[in-house]
Amino acid sequence: MPVPSLTVIAALAALHDGALYIDVRSSAEYAQGHPAGAINVPLLDADEDTGQVLPNPDFVRVMKANFAPDALLLIGCEAGSRSGRAAQILEVFGFVSAASVVGGYVGWRAAGHAVETSVPVGRTYADLLARAEENVHET
Prior knowledge:
Structural class: alpha/beta
Number of strands: 9
Number of helices: 6
Largest sheet: 5 strands, parallel
CATH architecture: 3-Layer(aba) Sandwich
Shape: globular
Number of domains: 1
Strand order of the largest sheet: 1-8-7-2-4
Radius of gyration: 14 Å
Mean pLDDT: 92
Low-confidence stretches: none
Helix content: 40-55%
CATH class: Alpha Beta
Distance between the termini: 33 Å
Order of helices and strands: EHEHEEEEHEHEHEH
Strand content: 15-25%
């Protein structure tokens, strides 16, 4: 079943209504700029040792540890292909309100929406991964 998709205009409106923007681009892409308030959970990321881009084996675990299955999640990437795949994966694992942002970061910037390069403490991928690790050790 195809996952819902939203334009960048509709995504901005959803953010104002309490949705969360999950940027599934690599950590390096995210660090270069992202929609204001976006949270980075890479679907693919560079291996620390080789630099090769690989699937993030912790993607679903980090999402489950940090977000409720009924949270309204706007899934964005660079232009839309990774976000569609990520939203499909999340749907398979019980997330009921994940929508792909058509146009991604490219469309976001083109629409003139706010972007940033900084990330508040507690919202970095490392923070989210640490929370997921804590959940593993608590069970």
